[in-house]
Amino acid sequence: MVTGHYVYVLRCSDDSLYTGYTTDVSRRVEEHQNEEAAKYTRGRTPVELVYVEEHGSRGDALSREHEVKQLTRDEKDTLVSDGDAPSPIDI
User: What does the pLDDT read at residue 85?
Assistant: First the structure.
């Protein structure tokens, strides 16, 4: 995968959704799985990558991450179900 700027959503083991930003989706998901990443996801593993967006700049991605974090749970569920689900070769 070409390194870019990504906003991603994880589904945690308690069915909560976590939104984050990274330049390397595979590495970041692995960090979440190993409980080395965000405090929120520690103790909520395993996590599943359910959504990814690529952005042209760090600023654009961070702005979008903020937007997604402001969505209601129903809006996030719609985004995840209607959006581009990642495939194994994408990450």
Answer: 57
